[in-house]
Structure formats: C-alpha cells, structure tokens
Amino acid sequence: MEDFLHNMDWVLPLRSDWATPIANGFTWLGYTPFFLMFLPLGYWLWDRAIFTRLAVLIAITAVVNGWLKDFWQDARPDPRYWIDNRVEGSPGRPSGHAQVAVAMWLWLAYEIRKSWAWIVAIVIAAGVGLSRLYVGVHDVDDILTGSVLGLAGIVLFIWLLGPSFDFWRRLPAIVHLAVILALVPALWFIWPPEGPAGSSFYGHTSVLFLLFGWVAGQTLDYRLAPVRGPRTALWQQAIMVVCGIVVLFALRWAVETGGAAIGLPPAAILFLGAAILGFYMTGLAPMGFRALKLMK
C-alpha cells in the first residue's frame, strides 16, 4: 500500500508527446489565471447567484487546503519526476488542484442537476487530479486526500446553505464583509507554524480578500440591477468576454507594478490586488457593460 500511495516510477512510461499537452491543459485548470477568468465569465454571462456560491466554496476550499498543507508539511515527489516547476517550495498533501477541482466541478453539476453536467464534471475533476500525477508533482496519497476533502467540502457547503443558516443570509452585506475581513487575523493565530517549505498563509488567505471584493461588488451590482435582463446577442457577449478579461489582467498588472513602485510590502500588494479584482469582477465590470449597452 505504501508503494502504491507514494511510488512515482510508474508515471514515467506513460508520458508521450501527445499526452503531455493534454495533461498540461488539465493542470492549468487549477491555477490562478483560470479562476480569474472562469469566475467572472460565469458571473457576467450565466448566473450571478450560482457563481457567487461557487466563489464562496472555492474560498473555503483554498483556505482549508492551505492550512492542511502547512500542517502536514508533506514532501512532494522527487523533483526528477516534475514537469510542472511552479510548485517549488510548496508541500504536497493535500493536492490543491484535486481538492478544488472536485469541489468546484461537482458543485456546478449539483447546481445544474443534469446528467450531462455530472459527466462533464467527473471527467474534468478526474482529468485535473490525474494530470497532477502525470506531471509528477503529487503522488496518489496527495490526490486521494485532496479528492476526499473536496467531497467533504461539498457536503459542508450544502449544510451551510441549508435552513440552519438562513439568519446569516438575512444579515446586511456590511456584516458579511466584516466577517470575511475578521477571518484573516483569526486564521493568523491558528495557522500552523512555518515549516521546511515555508508558509502559504498569505497566498491562501488572499482568496478571502478576493471574496471581500466580490461581495462588495455584488452588493453594488444587485443595487444597480436587482434583476438581470435577457441575454444580449452573441457578438455583444464576445465583446464582454474579450474586453472584460483584458481589463481584468491589465488591472492586476497595474496593481502589482504600482504597488511595487511605491514600496508596498508583497503581502499588501497581494491582498489589495485580490480585493480590487474581486470588486471589478462583480461591481465595476457589470456597471461598465451596462453603460456600453452590452448587458441589459
């Protein structure tokens, strides 16, 4: 059993010129640029409520994953197996890619409640998890642990959305925002001490600042447009996609560059940038789209 969970020699014979790009494609679905595009596009083009719930679920999952990584300090496979070098300095168990993929894609299937959605979700979640084995940065133990935690996160989230927490949803947005901010210092006190691979506190808790901006922007968006109109033409949606994403990454670059130029600490740049991007996704961008008649 120990050999099955941790030995990676079996991966090398599976690699080929055609399989590697596929694995890299699946593994990209677990990195920040994908989430920065997927979440706002779903909010702009599909359903505001579904993607707000998804943003909350991803935030919870990311924080839990970071805490457990730093708690366990489990070493990744030997670097000689790696194809993906973006993981240097990060512990292995649980796999963040597997945990977030299972929670995110199966949750979307749960929201859609269609057979095709479950098939697509399972294929993508499995593809992301297997891709981390293929690129050699996680062993089977990491993937299985992350997948189980992703499923547990869905069960927890269903409970949080149940009638027991109706009182929370009735509270004003200012309370929600205050609680999100209060979670950061609270997590600081309970975060595991820095281990051999360092600490991922700032990286994983930055998602809470993204959520803070998201909720603030969503509050503005619902105030300006309580009800969404019918979808606009495909050409208008295409303009929204291209312009919205270009501005998003330009804004990210501006915050990082400007913050470094004025001497802000890296953590401050990370937190501030995440909050600004979240507010842009749900507040500023929809307001701009409506002003340009791209969104009704």
Key phrases:
296 residues, mainly alpha, 0% strand
What's the mean pLDDT score?
93
| Residues in helix, % | over 70%
Largest beta-sheet characterization: none
Number of domain units: 1
The helix tally amounts to: 12
What is the general shape? Answer: globular
Strand-pairing-aware structural class: mainly alpha
Describe the structure.
The protein contains 12 helices and no strands. By secondary structure, it is mainly alpha-helical. The chain has one domain. The mean pLDDT is 93.
SSE topology sketch:
Blueprint: H1 2-6, H2 19-28, H3 32-45, H4 48-72, H5 96-112, H6 115-134, H7 140-160, H8 166-170, H9 173-190, H10 201-224, H11 234-261, H12 266-291
Helix pairs in contact: 2-6, 3-4, 3-11, 3-12, 4-5, 4-7, 4-10, 5-6, 5-7, 9-10, 10-12, 11-12
Describe, in short, the structure shown.
The protein has twelve helices and no strands.
